[in-house]
Amino acid sequence: MTWTRLKELVETPLGGLTQPTRSDWIFALRTVSAGLIALLVAYALKLDHPQWAMMTVFIVAQPVAGMVLAKGFYRLLGTLAGGLAAVGITSLFGANPWLLVTVLALWIGVCTLVSSLLRNPEAYGAALAGYTAMIISLPALGQPHVVVDLAVARCAEIVLGIVCAGVTSRLILPKLAADAIISRLKRSILDLAEYASGAFSGGDPASLAALQRKLIADAQTLAEMRTYARLEAPSFGTRAHPVRRTIGQLLWALSAARALHGHRAPKNAALIPMRRDLKTFVGELAATPGALDDTGPWVARLDAITGKAREMPSLPTDSGPNDTSEDKVGTITRLTIAGDFAEALKQVMRGLDALRSPVARKSNERGQPALVVHRDYQAAWRNAVRAALATLLVAIFWLTTKWSEAAGTVILVAVVSSLFAARPDPVQSAWGFFTGTLMALPFAFLVGQIALPALPGFGWFALFVVPILVPAALGMANPRHVGVATAFAINFLAFLSPHQQMIYDPGPFFAGSASILVGILIAIGVFIVVLPADPWATLERISQAMREDLARLCLHERIPRRSAFESLAYDRINQLMPQAQQTGRKGDPVLGGSIAAVTVGLEVLRLRHAQLNSAVPHETVESIGNFLRGLARELLFRRPGEPQTATIAVARQYAASIAKRSDRLEVLQIAASLRIIAAAMEDYPDFFARSRG
After folding, report:
1. Positive or negative torsion for Cα 98, 103, 104, 110
2. Which residues of the chain fall short of a pLDDT of 70?
3. What pLDDT, on the 0 to 100 scale, is given for residue 682?
4. How many whole angstroms separate alpha carbon 319 and alpha carbon 460?
5. InterPro entries in the record, alphabetically (predicted)?
6. What is the pLDDT of residue 359?
């Protein structure tokens, strides 16, 4: 998940703001104040490039204090790693410029590879380590003895900016990640109730699909915000466990609601009351202001609904072959899913209470696993090769032509090709960066080349830049404009290059500005021409990984914990969503299939646990094993467009025969799981087929 997306989820649950809020103004004024403080301290310390201290404040500025601390921490680590790499590479290869730029390009490729395999803010730190080495090493070309001084100065400037940003974000009207988690979870519960209400009453499919995407992304946001909250205060450590557990329950409830929506129940005496109770419950929850201020009454109602769903309903002893209205397997199937939804929603509410009133975790309590992430190694290698190749080719041009200003072009190519490499649409992200940079140019010229040489001094500087930077910071607080606004702010300061003695010298100003703009355009061209990303290929790799996950669930001797499977599956879905959005409506079946895959996985886990139940007849256990092996073959070997194997038919056949042999609830639930798997795979046949690649 990108920082832009995370800020959108934290700040604007409805997708954007048209007017700045009080929180936006606080963020903007706090950021500009921190930047001025950093610059003033840099002046006092007589740092060589004081603009870097102020730029760092805007680079790490985030709406939530924990996000600032996290990004600042990994920026510091990345700067230190890049500084050490610059010293080492320049010391070893500084005597040979061609060898030096080659090794630096390889270093950028390695860092881009690592960055593409990580998540923010770790990914940001890895990318930073790559181009920081380039920023430090290129000015030392031909004079390697100064590289240590450059590295120390660079680190000092960065540390100063991070400290100023972190202290002000934590002390001046802070917005804390701990509070944001509780607020986000409350909104997610209400969104889930709204989704379930629409699902149970046949709501608009497009609205339900959009709400489903939002809920999945919110779950991933909660996982990331947990890390930021722990950086804000160690006391949040006691709440980390409820957050992890609640994320899994939230996703479980979403999966159950979707399954109930996808296969609505026929008229049935056992199902009508349950469906009515659930529909009434979620409708009241979504429509009641302040409903979650006290979860007690809601939890009690869910307890009652769950208890009814778990009871054995009155079923006919003999049904005709065409009597679908009294299908006892279908009845148990839907009652089981309804009970799952009610239980999961109840656990989410209890998780909310645990966050609001944390208690010490028992020492013998079994910890939940951390959320697992999907690693796209093919895309990571593509990004690495592209960044290294682009940087090397531009560096060769620089060395060949000996154009001094081309050094800035080399640096910008390295920065953009590495920093935006893993974005769902790197061209769009880089173009936004270019737009903001271009917009900053005239403002920097007027202030730096016209106003400040005539009216020097820090007071005049603040008077000129504050009216420019405050609107930019307001744009940074708005997710619709954060990319362009951030590029504007940091490049305005880069072009301005504020020193205590400002002079009129437009020649170097325009030459340096041109090199930066050209570097960004070259990087955009590289994204378009060199190994361009194919969203469909990425979608297929993630889909294939999900199918392999399901096959492992079927065949692996060790049965994984439900929470571990859920975390891995929904992490893959969270990575799949932005790629699906790049393909428009054509990607909707892939997203729908991925949700269906989660349902299939959860039912496979039910079947695996049923195999260990001594109360289940031996012949039923054998049938489960045969079905799971056939399902694994289906997932691994059938190609799109090919007819389905007998696996789906076998699932329905086994379900029918099991239901005829026994009316015991635990046996009927096995039949229900088989029916759910068959229905999910029939709904999205191509998703559950192996790619042709």
Report:
1. positive
2. 1-18, 233-242, 263-270, 312-327, 358-373, 639-645, 690-693
3. 84
4. 88
5. PHBA_efflux_AaeB/fusaric-R
6. 58
Q: H/E element holding 94?
A: none
How many Cβ atoms from other residues are within 10 Å of residue 393's Cβ?
16
Closest residue by Cα to residue 560 from 336, 200, 568: 568
* Residue 263 φ then ψ, to 5°: -135, 75
pLDDT at 417: 94
Q: How far apart (Å, rounded) are the C-alpha atoms in residues 632 and 646?
A: 12
Q: Is the pTM of this model over 0.90?
A: no
The predicted pLDDT at position 358 comes to: 65
Question: Per the structure block, which two tokens stand in for 515?
Answer: 């090199």
**Residue of 540, 539, 534, 532 lying closest to 385 (CA atoms):** 532
Closest-CA residue to 226 (of 260, 157, 177): 177
Nearest to 308 by CA among 341, 285, 351, 348: 341
Contact between 484 and 471 (Cβ < 8 Å): no
Q: How far apart are CA 159 and CA 157, in angstroms?
A: 6
Q: DSSP string covering 592-641, please?
A: HHHHHHHHHHHHHHHHHHHHT-TTS-HHHHHHHHHHHHHHHHHHHHPPTT
CA 57 – CA 51 distance, rounded (Å): 10
Residue type, 490: I
Residue with tokens 């080399």: 410
> What residue has token string 């830049």?
465
Beta strands in 332-410 (DSSP E): none
**CB of 140 closer than 8 Å to CB of 104:** no
Q: Which residues contact 39 (CB under 8 A, 6 or more apart)?
A: 50, 51, 53, 54, 458, 498
Phi-psi region of 456 (alpha: psi -120 to 50; beta: other; left: phi over 0): beta
Q: How far is CA 603 from CA 544, 554, 573, 656, 666, in A?
A: 19, 10, 18, 17, 14
Q: d(Cα 116, Cα 108) in Å, to the nearest integer?
A: 12
